[in-house]
Amino acid sequence: MGRWICCLCSRVADPLMLLLVLALSCSPSTAATASPSVPHVKPSYSFGRTFLGLDKCNACIGTSICKKFFKEEIRFDTWLSSHLKLPPSYLLSYSGNYTDDAKSWRLVDITRLTSKYQHDRADKRICTSLLKTKTCSLERALRRTQRFQKWLRAKRLTPDLVQGLSSPMLRCPSQRLLDRIVRRYAEVPDAGSIYMDHLTDRDKLRLLYTLAVNSHPILLQIFPDVEGWPFPRYLGSCGRLVVSASTRPLRDFYGAAPEVAADLALQLLAVLRSMGTNDLNYFFYFTHVDAGTFGVFSNGHLFIRDASTLGIIDREEGSQLIDGQQEHKDIFSCLTVNCQSAFVSCDSIREKHSLVMVCQELLPKLLEGKFLQPVQEKIDSFLQHCAGGLTDNQGVNEAIAELVEILKPLRSCDSRFAYRYPDCKYSDKY
After folding, report:
1. CB atoms < 10 A from the CB of 81, how many?
2. What is the mean pLDDT of the chain?
3. What is the Cα–Cα distance from 56 to 208, expressed in whole angstroms?
4. Which of 152, 226, 272, 335 to pair with 399, CA 20 to 30 A apart?
């Protein structure tokens, strides 16, 4: 072939063209040694079904975002090269990166419903209590329960189907709230109806399991951030892992500058106010708060980072559980808590409940020793009064307004607060 091309080259009239063709084509060694193009093999990250919790499905959250993991469009922060292993499975949460186009990446939080130890203990309890064995098919065991058989026959999610579950969200359930759960359940492709006709048996088991273990992902789905609710965006789940928009826990800001602390405290008070007063007439309350309950986005905006301890009371419909139903318990009631734990009565929750908790656990750590006198003294005095339970004749909104008036002049308007900058330059709202 090379000799034929050389002969052809000899007929070329232009000497420069001849030299070019000879250089490129007339060397037999060049033609003989040219290797065919080899397609680039993308390094593959080794995923374990056990790490994701897929081996436990359908006693899991869902599979809506599994493809993202297997296509490497969700990566853990430790994945700097292909030979690195998965992070330790005993951690409750992981920091990761998420992409839709393989070019731009954004931070996400990858979390478990509960610790691996609690998951393993609950799995063992399912097998020993239902099938009298140490290991078993969790799905087969849970399908045999009386509660799930009722779920299979049900056309609509009603209060009796969730009675006895330990989730604070379901301690005082209304039909309106349960309809919202089914209508907005994001782990099925064709949600939108309040009836469960579009849910397969598998979907029903996943929804029941999630509600029984930790309602956090459900709250993110039914009260999305795009509608103004103070929760991070739900991106999906795979096995027993949930992926949501990333936030830094409030504990990271305990040592922040005074103006940052004042800004976060004001946002925290605004969230508490919205929990008690909103367009849908739901009253949200915390059963527990700690330094990881709230989080802050990169733009400085504060959100509820962990919604697992949130209870909901429907002020429009009230609770539809009849007397005694709250005490009905089964294996689904005991997956994450002691079966002997007593439920808090819906009637015992007061409007100031969450504010008092925040005054006791969070605001002192955020605001302590940050400001000059007499401002600091006023703040400390209010927090002490608030942590003691407030007075009977002082409403929550009045108490919040009192602290807001102290804190509002202490925050600043600059690019550190991107969620309200530069609007704060031109609006009295900020």
Report:
1. 8
2. 85
3. 14
4. 226
Q: What is the pLDDT of residues 254-272, one digit of tens each?
A: 999 999 999 999 999 999 9
98 bridge partner residues: 74, 106
Q: Is the peptide bond before 159 cis (omega within 30 degrees of 0)?
A: no
Ordered DSSP codes for 230-270? SSPPEEEEEBTEEEEE--EEGGGGTT--HHHHHHHHHHHHH
Q: Which amino acid is at 227?
A: E
26: confidence class by pLDDT, cuts 50, 70, 90: very low
Q: Evaluate the omega torsion of the peptide bond into residue 58 and state whether it is cis, within 30 degrees of 0.
A: yes
Residue 67 confidence (pLDDT): 94
**Residue type present at position 73:** E
* pLDDT tens string 158-174: 999 999 999 999 999 99
What was the pLDDT predicted at 191?
73
Angle between helices 396-407 and 353-361 (to 10 degrees): 40
Q: Note the residue count of the chain.
A: 430
Burial of 285 from C-beta contacts in 10 A (0-12 / 13-18 / 19+): buried
State how far the Cα of 74 lies from the Cα of 239, in Å rounded to an integer.
14
Residue 103: per-residue pLDDT: 84
**What are the angstrom distances between the C-alpha of 355 and each of 322, 326, 362, 363?**
29, 26, 10, 10
> 256, 250, 261: which is closest to 293 by C-alpha?
250
Please report which confidence band the pLDDT of residue 84 belongs to, taking 50, 70 and 90 as the band edges: low
**Residue 26: Cβ within 10 Å count:** 18
Q: How far is CA 328 from CA 331, 341, 430, in A?
A: 11, 12, 48
Of the candidates 121, 125, 77, 83, the residue with the CA atom closest to the CA atom of residue 97:
77
CA–CA separation, 388 and 417 (whole Å): 32
430: its two tokens: 């900020």
For residue 20, what pLDDT is reported?
38
Q: How would you classify the pairing of strands 93-99 and 302-304?
A: unpaired
Tokens, residue 228: 């103004």
From 220, 228, 218, 233, select the one nearest 107 (Cα to Cα).
233
